[in-house]
Amino acid sequence: MRIVRTIHELRDALQSVRTGGSIGAARVGMVPTMGALHEGHLSLVRTARAENDCVVMSIFVNPTQFGEAADLAAYPRQEAQDVELAESAGVDLVFAPSVAEMYPTGFATAVHVSGPLTEVLEGAGRGSAHFDGVATIVSKLLLAVLPDNAYFGQKDAQQLRVVQRMTQDLGIPTRIRSCPTLRDEDGLALSSRNALLSDTERASASRIPSALTAVTAALAAGDISVSRLRAVAEEVLVGGNLDVEYVEIVDPDTFESVKFVERPALCAIAARVGTVRLIDNTLLVPQR
Ligand SMILES: Nc1ncnc2c1ncn2[C@@H]1O[C@H](COP(=O)(O)OP(=O)(O)OP(=O)(O)O)[C@@H](O)[C@H]1O
Ligand SMILES: CC(C)(CO)[C@@H](O)C(=O)[O-]
Ligand code: BAL
């Protein structure tokens, strides 16, 4: 496995993959990450490995998508361990650029995705700059690698939709692949930020997936009213010392709110546990 730190080195390495040796017209898969790798990231790599000849992972804690300086400063960084994990999961090439490489002096361009897709939930909670930061860095990463496929987790469902919209609108010729959320035994979605939780905070955090499970059960029992389903979630969340930011049920494509779950809808939750902000979601599928 090779590690490269500049776009120039990255293009050179990819050129030899694409033209080189026995591989010929190699299919390239990309897994963008912010590092602090866990099994969730590695599951994306394994899917990429199965569907491509060459797997590129980027590791870059992108400052422009962080609203809060404290969140950026606290974000876990562990490159040496990440490199080992990436190699063991089958990554061929790691792109780990510096901030100056991605945002050189004078950098003045942003990619902005507009509409409810970026204004609600995470767009509202983390500020309007968040998805501009994500769309800008993901377009730079995709343009640097021009992968055939790029892999994103359903845990960040809104980000996934924003990236799909952006690649479609800009005509970036990469297929965006959606991968399921991996969870720990207590149901908590794997997340790099989980490393920042104390044991008590972790117990509180596990109420988030429990709330999603309770909503799924209430829907299965025949309740399709969004206001009642949200109340079911809130009842589970309350008492866990959680600072709930939102419990929303939205159209999974447009992220507009719905009143009744008559078609598949996304139930998404964001909550703070101490200083750590966590998100999770599940697709609600009504029975016919
Ligand atoms: N539990 C998970 N299962 C599957 N994919 C995941 C999981 N957690 C993160 N991913 C995906 O991995 C990619 C990189 O995410 P990122 O590096 O931000 O990790 P993260 O664990 O989501 O960190 P954090 O939530 O703390 O920002 C994203 O596409 C994200 O959706
Ligand atoms: C897609 C991404 C790597 C862009 O910085 C980040 O938002 C993430 O890790 O989900
Ligand atoms: N995992 C999504 C990226 C972020 O939290 O900024």
Automatic annotation (TrEMBL):
| Active-site annotation | H41
**Chain residues that bind ATP:** 34-41, 153-156, 182, 190-193
Q: Which InterPro entries match?
A: Cyt_trans-like, Pantoate_ligase, Pantoate_ligase_C, Rossmann-like_a/b/a_fold
Per UniProt, what is one GO molecular function of this protein?
pantoate-beta-alanine ligase activity
Q: Which UniProt keywords apply?
A: ATP-binding, Cytoplasm, Ligase, Nucleotide-binding, Pantothenate biosynthesis
| Any one of the GO CC terms | cytosol
Q: What is its main location?
A: cytoplasm
Per UniProt, beta-alanine binds at Q65
User: Could you tell me which pathway this protein works in?
Assistant: Cofactor biosynthesis; (R)-pantothenate biosynthesis; (R)-pantothenate from (R)-pantoate and beta-alanine: step 1/1
Quote the subunit structure annotation.
Homodimer.
Function per UniProt: Catalyzes the condensation of pantoate with beta-alanine in an ATP-dependent reaction via a pantoyl-adenylate intermediate.
Record-linked NCBIfam families:
cyt_tran_rel (TIGR00125), panC (TIGR00018)
The family note in this entry says: Belongs to the pantothenate synthetase family.
* Protein name as catalogued: Pantothenate synthetase
Organism this protein belongs to = Leucobacter insecticola
